[in-house]
Amino acid sequence: MSKTVPVGVSARHIHLTQEHVEALFGPGYQLTEFKPLSQPGQFAANEQVAVIGTKSKFDKVRILGPVRPASQLEISRTDSFSLGVKAPVRESGNIEGTPGITLKGPAGEVVLETGVIIAARHIHFHTSEAEAWGIADKQLLKVRLGGDRGLVLENVLARVSDNFALDMHIDTDEANAAGANNGDTAEIVD
C-alpha cells in the first residue's frame, strides 16, 4: 500500500499570544482571516509584523491564527542567517531555551525573550490515518519527494491527533532543495 501525503511548503510565519497581538495592534485587537490553512481551524491572518534581528529585518511576516498560549516565530535556516539569530530545529511549541527577537506592529513593539525556531519537518496525521498506516505519534519517518530534484528526507516527525488533517510541512529551504511545491505529493518509505 502506497503511503502518499500532500506537501505543504511553510514560509516564515509567526504565532502570537492575544497579549502580543494587542501590544502590536492595539487593545482588544482580534486577528482577521486572510485564508484558511490545511489544518482545521487554522488560518493565515491579514495581519503582518516586522521581525527585527541583529543583522537584518523582515518587514512583512504573516501571522497565523488563532492565537496561541506562547508566541513563536518559525523561520528557515537561510532566514536565520539573514536575521543573525541561531534558531534551533524544534517541534512547534517546543521553545524553551530558544533565542528571542523583536517584533514591530502598527501600535507597538514586543521583544520576545524566546520563541525563534526552525520548525522540524513533520506530517500531520488524523488519528484514523495514522492507525491505518501503523504510524505512532512522534515517530520519525523517511519520506521521498519526487520530481527533477527529488530527494529523501529523514527524521520527518509524525504528529497525530483527532484535530489534524493529513499534510506534510516542510520549510522553503527544504522545498527549494527538492524543487517541491504546495500540492505536490510525497511518499512515506520507512
From TrEMBL:
EC code: 2.3.1.222
Q: What class of enzyme is it?
A: transferase
Cofactor(s) the record lists: Zn(2+)
* Keyword tags: Acyltransferase, Metal-binding, Transferase, Zinc
List this protein's GO terms for biological process.
Answer: 1,2-propanediol catabolic process
Q: Is Secreted one of the keywords?
A: no
- One matching Pfam family is PTAC
Q: Name one GO molecular function term.
A: acyltransferase activity, transferring groups other than amino-acyl groups
Instruction: Give the catalytic activity.
Output: propanoyl-CoA + phosphate = propanoyl phosphate + CoA
Q: Does the keyword Metal-binding apply?
A: yes
Q: Pathway it belongs to? A: Polyol metabolism; 1,2-propanediol degradation
Family to which this protein belongs: Belongs to the PduL family.
Function of the molecule:
Involved in 1,2-propanediol (1,2-PD) degradation by catalyzing the conversion of propanoyl-CoA to propanoyl-phosphate.
Q: What name is this protein filed under?
A: Phosphate propanoyltransferase
Q: Which organism is it from?
A: Paenibacillus monticola
